[in-house]
Amino acid sequence: MSQFHPLTVSQVRHETRDTIAVTFAVPPALRASYAYQQGQHLTLRAHIDGEDVRRSYSICSAVQDDTLRVAIKRTQGGLFSSWAVDHLQPGAVLDVMPPSGHFNVPLDAANRKHYLAFAAGSGITPILSIIKTTLAFEPHSRFTLFYGNRASSSVIFREELSDLKDVYLDRLRIAYVMSREQQDIDLFNGRITQDKCTEFLRYWTRVDDVDVAFICGPEDMMLGVSAALQAAGMPKEAIKVELFLATGATGANGPRKARAHAAMETGAHQNTEVTVIMDGSATSFTMAQDQESLLDAGLRAGIDMRYSCKGGVCSTCRCKLVEGQVDMDINYALEDYEVARGFVLSCQSFPITGKVVLDFDQAE
């Protein structure tokens, strides 16, 4: 699961001016490795200007499609996304890690549930996979989607969503929310915020009629919508969140800098013996506490540990702490029950005991 495999790009489709949908051809020998669940993501790797660059992108196809497809949206200053949008063509080969992630719930054909989703911008990518898969697998369930964008021209997968609405006329409701394009109904103007969500729950749908809610978008939207849902009576465990852009995530190193500074002032550096179990083998190394994350130390020791964002967002570096203790700075990816069971994000974990054992194999 931690290995990259070279996959050939079979199709590149421009969904908007700055977003492409990329389909990969999966050879028969790797089909089992790349079987996915709705809402999961892929970590892609490319060498750009001599730099090893990795990014995670959500799968946007339904499980029933039997097609491995992701969406890549150009972001300001985004090295990988800009390169991909400008240069990726059919026939190109990218290193791709098998699917991972837990942004989903178990499905049952006998379910009669009402699912609610909030997405903003490229946050529609995993939501599309979830909606398509769920409505096809659960013929008695319904979905309501609130989808925020700047304007109609920036709506990703608009045509596909329209086709999906035609197929599931009675089971899929979609409300587009525009921040820079005036719409006839004032409720659907502006950004999706906590107050806006409260209005949706008052005039458009009721929490007591919803079984599960999915949220995918920027941090402020995610926190606001989650707060509105809980204030309206939805249990926290019924709310699934996926953060595609954490404000300052890639540079969110305040806590670690503070710890390192304190250790430098006191000269109190301690060493930790770290053992990493991955793909059935164990490798050990020694690192200083309060200096760097377990992931960075492992990479420096020559271990090909899996990672993508390094910001506590994507869960690619998820592993189980089977011995020792760590401080985890940032966590946008793990549920409370996963943390309680001992799972950590190695990119955000710093050892505080003399010995630490991380098992990546148990994380699958």
Automatic annotation (TrEMBL):
GO terms for biological process: phenylacetate catabolic process. The keyword Protease does not apply. Residues 272-364 form the 2Fe-2S ferredoxin-type domain. Gene3D superfamilies: 3.10.20.30, Nucleotide-binding domain of ferredoxin-NADP reductase (FNR) module (3.40.50.80), Translation factors (2.40.30.10). GO terms for molecular function: 2 iron, 2 sulfur cluster binding; flavin adenine dinucleotide binding; metal ion binding; oxidoreductase activity. It comes from Duganella phyllosphaerae. Transmembrane segments: none annotated. This is 1,2-phenylacetyl-CoA epoxidase, subunit E. Its EC number is 1.-.-.-. InterPro entries: 2Fe-2S_ferredoxin-like_sf, 2Fe-2S_ferredoxin-type, 2Fe2S_fd_BS, Beta-grasp_dom_sf, Cbr1-like_FAD-bd_dom, FAD-bd_FR_type, Flavoprot_Pyr_Nucl_cyt_Rdtase, FNR_nucleotide-bd. Coiled coil: none annotated. It is an enzyme of class 1 (oxidoreductase). Its cofactor is [2Fe-2S] cluster; FAD. Keywords: 2Fe-2S, FAD, Flavoprotein, Iron, Iron-sulfur, Metal-binding, Oxidoreductase.
